[in-house]
Amino acid sequence: MVKQFSVFLENRPGRLANLLDVLGESKIKVLAMEIAEAGNYGIVRMIVDDDKKALSILRRANMAVNQVDVIIIDLSNITAAVNVLGGAGVNIDYAYTMDCRKVVLKVNKEAEALKALSDSGLKVYSGKV
Questions:
Q1: pTM of the predicted protein model
Q2: Of 5, 64, 86, 116, whose CB neighbour count within 10 A is largest?
């Protein structure tokens, strides 16, 4: 499993730049990012190269941040993976691509998803990606 951050931001010019500046000033690289807007606010989901450091920095910057585990697989295996997960009764809450070669999956049953994917021989990335 890999850690993903969800940062709650106002949907205003400069808010995303501020978030990325805070991370960049601490030499934290963003490896994947997705933004879901909800009217006046948005959720920025991201994977970074140093999750422990990033969490500390974002909290010190008074940003509303949450951390969850996600699964990362090769994009070329997406059809097989969704079939395996569906067959195992695992729902995909959301997904987004990472570096044009991988896909990030947030699922409702993490342990079952990992077992099903492993049993089917599909590679799951863990730790640093």
A1: 0.89
A2: 5
- Quick one: CA torsion of 2, 118, 96, 68, rounded to 10 degrees? -30
Query: Rounded to the nearest 10 degrees, how much is the dihedral formed by the CA atoms of 32, 4, 21, 7?
Result: 120
Instruction: Tell which CATH architecture fits domain 70-125.
Output: 2-Layer Sandwich (3.30)
Provide the pLDDT confidence category of residue 39 given band limits of 50, 70 and 90.
confident
CATH superfamily of 2-68: VC0802-like (3.30.2130.10)
Q: What residues have CB less than 8 Å from 99, skipping those under 6 apart?
A: 31, 32
Q: How many residues does the chain have?
A: 129
Euclidean distance between CA atoms 104 and 91, whole angstroms: 14
Q: What is the per-residue pLDDT for 114?
A: 95
Burial class (CB in 10 A: 0-12, 13-18, 19+), 84: buried
Q: 102: closest CA among 85, 123, 82, 86? A: 123
Whether pLDDT at 128 is above 80: no
